[in-house]
Amino acid sequence: MATLPLIDAIAESVKQCGCAVLVDKFTFSAAIVFVAILKFRLGPKVKIIGEDMGDGLKFFAEGGLVELPTSGAVVRHSSARHDWETGIADLTTPPEIAQQLVPVRNLDVNQQWVSTPFDTTPRNDVYSRLIEELA
Fold it and tell me: Quick check: is 31 in a domain?
């Protein structure tokens, strides 16, 4: 929810054009929330570029840590349900998140764009190519 001012600023600045969001298989939880709200607010003006995200629109987050008594290992648990597909909260959804839930339906990638760790293309060339492809 800390990114809501950024989403407001982006929404204000793209009235005449669009914007693109880069996502990949390491895009989870808070980043999915950011993209979901941005997509809901901007509709077709936002393009999702990259590869499928690491999680779906329904996931569990928040929660805490529990130290296991015998091993001393610390385990993280998630207890709050997020449903950005339908925008429906349940009893586990914190009120501050429930207020922002929106029915985004899907976050399909508009343009597949994947690189490999072995790609030696200079970053400026990569960004230039991406901007050209979006035009």
Answer: yes
Give the 3-state secondary structure of 58-87.
Answer: EEEECCEEEECCCCCCEEEECCEEEECCCC
**Token pair recorded at residue 124:** 């400026």
Given a contact cutoff of 8 angstroms between Cβ atoms, the answer to whether 80 and 97 are in contact is yes
For residues 93 and 61, what is the distance between their CA atoms, to the nearest angstrom?
9
pLDDT tens-digit series, residues 33-49:
999 999 999 999 999 99
Cα separation of 130 and 135, whole Å? 9
What range does the domain containing 66 cover? 18-134
**What's the domain count of the chain?**
1
Q: How far apart are CA 83 and CA 9, in angstroms?
A: 24
User: Quick check: is 6 in a domain?
Assistant: no
pLDDT at 21 over 80: yes
Computed over every residue of the chain, the mean pLDDT equals 92
Full-model pTM: 0.85
Task: Please give the structure tokens belonging to residue 41.
Answer: 């607010």
The three-state secondary structure class of 16 is coil
